[in-house]
Amino acid sequence: MEDNVVTVLIVDDDANVRKTFGNILKLKGYQVEGAGTGAEAIDCAKKIFFNIAVIDMKLPDMSGFDVLREVVKISANTIPLMITAYASMDSAIESMNRGAYSYVTKPVNMDEVLAVLGRALEKQRLSMENNLLMRELKAANEKLKELDLLKSEFVAMVSHELKNPLCVIKGVMELLIDGTIGAISPKQKELVGNGKRSAERLLRLVTNLLDIAKIEAGKMELLRESISPEDLIREVLTSYKSMLAEKELSVKEEIQRSEKRIWADPDKVTEVIINLLNNAIKYTPKGGNITVKLDWVGGEVRFEIADTGPGIPEKAKEKIFDKFERITAETQEGTGLGLPIAKNIVELHKGKIWVESEHGQGSRFIFTIPQDLRA
Ligand SMILES: Nc1ncnc2c1ncn2[C@@H]1O[C@H](COP(=O)(O)OP(=O)(O)OP(=O)(O)O)[C@@H](O)[C@H]1O
Ligand SMILES: [Mg+2]
Fold first, then answer.
1. Mean pLDDT of 84-88
2. How far is CA 351 from CA 282, 354, 375, in A?
């Protein structure tokens, strides 16, 4: 509302109506303009903004509805109010359908008009305020998105920089344990072994941070290579042998032998398997069983990692694939990034991932990847 002065346009061919109307409204402090024809009204609306346009349904040159349409086209914030000579339901409904805020009947009852104007102005004030807030909210949202992207890029950069030295540390510890650079005592071996496991945990965390940052920045890209899912899964299982033994978990492999290959990103698919296997190991109590399955179903390869852990309650089955959602946060270490990353990678491969579980009966995480992604 410009300068807080409320502007009203009265469109009526009856000069008397314009005058009486105008005088009363002026007394109320409104700024009033009158127009005797539709064309005049449209001209006026082009020159100044009206908070309200009171329009007679019947005008000499055009219908009140045409004026209403034009006035609203000129300024969407102007509130149109129709005056009709007779109180018919039809004309009332039509007024509303055509976008009028309300309508009054002739002879005009000024108290009624003033009450309607009051309500209309309040509505206008709220809607203009709303629009302003929406604009502010949108701008703030854009800014946040920009900052979020910067944050993701920063996290990606830092994680990337952390990865190389960590790999070196892990490598050196492996050399020490292997005895490649000289024999060490069992006690030294045990300590270096602890160090190596910590370096691995840290490397896992950094890899997940790097992945999630890339996903958030929309920069997770896939390589397309012909790979054997069987080889991938066996490689991961080999590297987890000691961890599985340490937790006294037995592993059952049900891997369908096949020459078939998939056209996918080997490192990324390995990430998915690792995240699922890590969870199975982490959440299954000592002495439990893990089953790793691989089979081919209708042009897709299907990976399955099942455990005899606590299982996932029905209401959490979808949620756990969201960032930072953890249902066992207090009992196990973790950041809640493994499953969302897995989901993203699987979906980038046009596959699906889900969990089947009866609470208390273990979990079965399954993901599929179409055999030929080049199609
Ligand atoms: N095999 C499982 N058995 C029971 N609960 C599981 C299993 N896998 C995942 N969950 C539940 O789902 C949550 C989300 O898993 P997700 O892998 O995303 O995160 P995390 O394991 O907590 O942390 P991160 O993987 O980042 O180290 C876990 O916190 C856990 O509550
Ligand atoms: Mg996890």
1. 73
2. 25, 10, 14
